[in-house]
Amino acid sequence: MNDELSPLMEEARSLIEPMAVYSFLPVTNIDDDEVRLDDDFSLMSIVLSDMLEPGQEVVPFVITVGPRLEERAHADKNLLRSYLLEKVADHALGKAEDHLKSHTGRRLGPVISAFNPGSGTGELFTIDQQEVLFKLLDPAKNLGVQLSSSFMMIPRKSISGIFAATREEYVSCAHCPKECESRKTPYRGKYQRAKKTQ
Question: pLDDT tens digit string along 12-27?
């Protein structure tokens, strides 16, 4: 098995093209579920409005590992090889997100949360908010990542979101009852808004 996997992994590595576009922006205002960034862009999100504070700096981002590995996986007629290549692409994308989170975290603070539109049940930060991130960062121009009419990214092995310092780390899996292989933490129940001090 190793004799078959090693060349496949080497080929996969050669096809990964990690790229990111991001920006440090201040939260200028929070009004109900509307979070205003730099006075020009507004995101609607229950969890962002609950966990962020006016005046703090956040990092909107889009990351991709490019189309080549995804195209290679799609073209392979061997289902096992195709599946393994897809998993390598997912792993590479996760590593790229971890790297950018660590890099920006040096400036943001010790506890960094990643908020990704559509993650978990999709109710706390809806997938349509990717449209705001795309207007803000223009990943089509900067990375070659397009947004479809259904708010899916092309290439698929791409991710968008907000990095921000928070009191405790937010992980969307904690509030999502779906069973999936990418779960990062046990389900802890429906999200409950924190009681903000006045």
Answer: 999 999 999 999 999 9
